[in-house]
Amino acid sequence: MKFDRPIGAAADAKELEYVAALHQTSHSDEDGDWMDGSINDKDVRAFLMSRHGIKTSEEEVRKVIFSGLAGGEGEDDCIDIVEMVSILVIPLLLKVAKGNERKVATEFSSAEDFNAYMMLEDEREKLAPPPSIISDVLRNILIDAEESLSKPPKLTNNLIRHIFSAFDELGLITDDNLIEEMINGASGGNPDVVLDAETFARALTHDITLYNTDNETSASTHFDDVFKAKEPVASSQDNQDTEKKGLDTSAVSSANSTYTFPEIDFMADNFNSWEHVVIVWATLIISYVVYIFLNGKQSNLSPCDSDSFGCKITKSLVSWVQIMLQLVIMGTGVGSALSIGNKMQADTVYGPLVGLVAVAVFIFLPKFYEFDANVSSGDQDANIFSTNMEESYPGMARILIPLGVLLSLIQIKNIIAIVISNEKLSKNRFLARLFLGSNVQAEFRIKQAASYKVNQMISNAYTLHKEDEKSSRQTSVKKAFKTTTTEVSTQESALMNFTKISEKTEEIGGLIWAWKEVFTGSLQTKEGIWLHTRLIAGNMAQFIFIFVVLGYSIMVLGGIIKEVYTVQFSPCKSTFDYNSCYFPYSEVETYTGTGLCLDVELDGTTNENGGNACYDSFVPVGGSLGTNTCNMLNELKGIFYSTDKCTDVLSAADDQLNAQGFNVSDLHGCEKLLNLATIYGDGGSDIFNQTDIMTCTDYINNVTSAVESSFNASALSEYSLCMETPSHFLRSIDMCEIQVFQTTSVIKSYEKSYTDETEFCESVLSYCVPYFNNTGACLIGMRNLLPFQFEGVTCEDYPDINNILEYKDQITTLFPEKWMLQLSATLAIIVGFFGAFMTAAVYIPSAVHTLLKFRSGVIPSLRSKSFLAYRTNLEHVTLMIGAMFWGMIVTTLLMIIVVAGGVFFLVWQVSRPYVIDIIALVIGIAVTTIVKILLTMIVMKSSQAGFYRTKPLLSNVFCFALECWNLALTAGSVTARLAKFVVATSIYVGRIDTPVLAEDLLLNLDKFPVLFRKDLLATDAHHHPYIELLGTMYMMKLRHKGNFGKTSGSMWRLLFVVALMPWLKKYRIQDELNVEDEDLLKKIKEMSDVKKEVIEN
To answer: How is 797-823 classified by DSSP, letter by letter?
Structure first.
């Protein structure tokens, strides 16, 4: 993951381009004005609304913000990169002008806070520019303006015009008002002031003293630093200037803010705590999986029942619309409610209190109060047999309780923070760590990063003005030829050094380096990288999947292997009737090795408690397994009754009863109720209405009396016999209405015609549905997931069972041994776990590296047309959490399948001969390939030099022979390439952070890496340290208007930046100069006359 990036001032210039590209919003590909890095009123207006919820107009941006920081208020005014840097250096210039005095220990509430402050200041001093930087920059300005350095020149209008001319600001030469303001700001009221270091420092800072540099060490937000800070007092000179110009001397008390629901602001992370958001997302995901997905309630609407193509489309449409509505309405409602209270600038406790209520309603209440949709719908029978989600998935449901507890604790912490107040918390580091939200603390670190990065940028630029030994000799030569001064500006040397350093790079990055930066905090305090909550939530979901789901997979696979190869017999015995069994075929017309039997009878073996021992060997089965089993038994019932004599007898009885005026539907309904009551026994007293049971009993007695009086003796005998058989109970019952049970140990089942211990046909039970006392419908022939479990000397007397055994002899050799499955499963799980862990572990480092590549220009931004695509369709970033989670699942499953399949193929006795053939083939190809490599090394070394041949004859013959040979070898190479693609896909399908397919393919099939970058860039556009600092200055202008950031001070700072970083002049955007302007020509002539007079004197 390591990469090479530019270093020093060259890297700083690339990052400034990147910041401009991030800040831009409305620039299109057609006009091309985005390439100059300009930031216009639309960009600033959009940023203030998106980041801080501050509502402004484009006119207000121009007249309030641009008029002081960008030098104008016209329709076409904008901030260029040079002006942007002149804004960014405001805190640094204030500290340099004040001498960067440190606070004393008495100003802190604890020794810990003071020590942390001193450590931070020590780190800053390593990069802070020297105190002489202002005088050194002034020296270059005066030299370029061809002023003598023998003594400081008097600050005059003409001197400033010369400086403008030297720095190509020719359009300002005629602006007398600006020049007067610049002199007034620098002079401090002294009409005879000279332009020395002190005057220059005052000129650079006279209009920005309202900015409090202590905010950099305060654990507060940028918004609070401006709009919730105490009203500062401007200098007396500033107040005088304000009164003279008639400006409003009252500061704006609050921002024109609009409510943005910051608790769910995942674009700018404007909420209080990212931990709160991650827990809410975990709650939503687990709630969906437990209450909807695993409980089979994603879609229960069926608009049609046919198997036509149109019906299938309709069902699919209705299903997905229902899922959409469930997730959108329920997810948004529940997620929003649980998020309330997670507000960064909260003033009241109402939000956290509402959040606590939401936790109780949406997390604790569903856990302790079971709610079933079937109850509310009035479908009593369906509710009787519904499977309780808590019983089927208790582990996942219980996870919601600790999540609810954590959310409650966070809300209580928010209440305490509001009561204490953010102002007190920001001054005490211990309380800040304990009660301030993680995002508030992150903003504090971003402020530190802004200070660190600006210091580093200025230090890098200042370093380029230093001369090495060779440059020093060249400067001495230039001084010898100078006629007007003996001093030489260092700007030329700085430009030359900048050109040299532009080619230099440093290696940075790596997986361990990135995580180290994250855990030490340097990632935010130095690099200023904000890890957005969407990325953290997705990454947390991945790690949860790794340790929970893969751990669960180990248990499941171990259980399956144990189930298949471990036999535990039950003391219970049973019998089946071959004539009541159906032995199904598979889809390929082969026996499945199982049978579905009605009227399977369990014996009366008692357990130690005196109950039926057979019941101890059964457990209920729910979900799709139970549904599939009962559907198969329903199919068997239909086949059985289609040939059963009782069907005709009972149908004739129904016709006779209908003729006598009885309602057969009521009769069958009563039979169903009484049969179910019989199955449940005493346990059904709380389920069934006893009045209904008594009514149905009387009704059945009346029907019986009618039958006895109207049927002849023969018909009555047949009717009575059929009514007394256990299978009669199946006549009115759907198998899926009765609980399906699975055996926990092997229950042997004998064909009921067996005579003794030696003459029998034996099988085993696996799944059963009881319907009368100890009688039920069961699946036989399967033991521990293995079919064909029939044995006994009389099995050959039953045609279907005999055929199954003959087919079993043919396929027995296919069954793998236990160690083969264990080895395949073990290696697959190990590789799957390692691959999943590495995939999850690489996401945050990948995000860090991607942002660093953008910032350093390794990935182009400002002048790249492809960068424009990142600003569009930002709604696609909402796919990221789901893509990260499901991508992890898919890539893990693919790796497990590929590894397990590969290992199993190597060790399985059926495929082993093919493996031996493949190994022999590979060895043969490998040996010949090695021979080819050795020959190639010898021949090509003696006949080739770069792209040229030293022995064309030998080279031509050898290459032609290789081409013939490669006709066969490339078949294997292509196959190997396909295998590599399969392996690479299984590894990288879960990596949405990196492109798997080339970006210039005919079809752009993989859009996830693009949306990953969009998400990173959208977050950096809100939280890049430079943009945050720019935003603070925008808000300072909105609050203090003309009292902060005047055009005169901005122009002095612009000259400082251009003199210090002359390579930025290419980004300067200026109005087109009219060389025929009479006023301009007049001013130039005056400057020339004054200069000539100075030379003559």
So the answer is: GSHHHHHHHHHHHHHGGGPPPHHHHHH
Q: Are strands 595-602 and 775-780 parallel, antiparallel or unpaired?
A: antiparallel
Distance CA(128)–CA(216), nearest Å, equals: 15
Which pTM does this prediction carry? 0.75
Query: In 865-968, which ranges are E strands?
Result: 944-945, 948-949
Whether 245 shows a pLDDT value over 50: the answer reads no
Pairing of strands 775-780, 762-772: antiparallel
d(CA 991, CA 980): 17
Report the 10 Å Cβ neighbour count for 119.
10
Query: At 170, is the secondary structure helix, strand, or coil?
Result: helix
Q: Is 382 exposed, middle or buried (0-12, 13-18, 19+ CB in 10 A)?
A: middle
Instruction: Give the residue among 872, 888, 887, 891 at the shortest CA–CA distance from 1013.
Output: 872
Per-residue pLDDT tens digits for 156-210 = 888 888 888 888 887 788 888 888 989 998 888 788 889 898 999 999 999 999 9
Q: Tokens standing for 97?
A: 């002008």
Helices (H), 989-1046: 1008-1023, 1025-1040
Largest CA distance in the chain: 150
- Specify the pairing of strand 762-772 against strand 948-949: unpaired
H or E segment to which residue 507 belongs: strand 505-508
Joined together, the tokens standing for residue 24 give 């831009």
Q: How far apart are CA 1046 and CA 847, in angstroms?
A: 39
| Exposed/middle/buried for residue 315 (C-beta within 10 Å: 0-12, 13-18, 19+) | middle
Buried b (16+ CB within 10 A) or exposed e, 827-865: bbbebbbebbbebbbbbbbbbbbbbbbbbbbbbbbbeee
In a 3-state reduction of DSSP, which class is residue 743? strand
Whether 411 and 343 have beta carbons less than 8 Å apart is answered as: no
- At 519, give phi and psi (nearest 5°): -75, -30
**DSSP secondary structure of 15-70:** HHHHHHHHH--S--TTT-GGGGT-B-HHHHHHHHHHHH-B---HHHIIIIIIHHHT
